[in-house]
Amino acid sequence: METPAYKDPLSYAVIGCAMKVHSKMGPGFQEVIYQRCLAIELQKAFVPFTREQSHKVYSDDIEVGERRADFVIDNQIVVEIKALVKLEDVNIAQAKNYTVVYDFPKCLLINFGGSSLEYKLMFNPKYHPKQV
Asked: CATH number, domain at 84?
């Protein structure tokens, strides 16, 4: 039986690494601290990643800027890190946009700032069309 898209081993591995970071560090640090800690946990778990990978942003085929993804996991998942008390709709919208603009199948938004780890897995409709 095939693993559902939302339960793939790669997403689970990243979420597991994030849980380890949150349980060790707790809330209250800046995003960069959680980035560094997550990089350590991903290395320990042998999860292939690139940190702060640059991506150009286009509008009508015209380059309008550049943005760096906190992590790109195995060229499949873009990971956006936050250190907020609680995720807000604007954070979720931003992560959804990154998934499409960066052209990755999935985006994992991870928030280390709350008393519990918060994460949202989003899918690029290009790769995960809605079933009719």
From this structure: 3.90.320.10
- Summarize pLDDT for 36-90 with one digit per residue, the tens: 999 999 999 999 998 987 777 777 888 888 877 899 999 889 999 999 999 889 9
User: Is residue 118 one of the residues assigned to a domain?
Assistant: yes
Q: How many domains does the chain have?
A: 1
Spatial neighbors of 20 by CB under 8 A, at least 6 apart, are: 41
R_g of the chain computed on alpha carbons: 15
45, 131 contact by CB (below 8 A): no
**CA 96 – CA 78 distance, rounded (Å):** 10
Is residue 60 within 8 Å of residue 23, measured between CB atoms? Answer: no
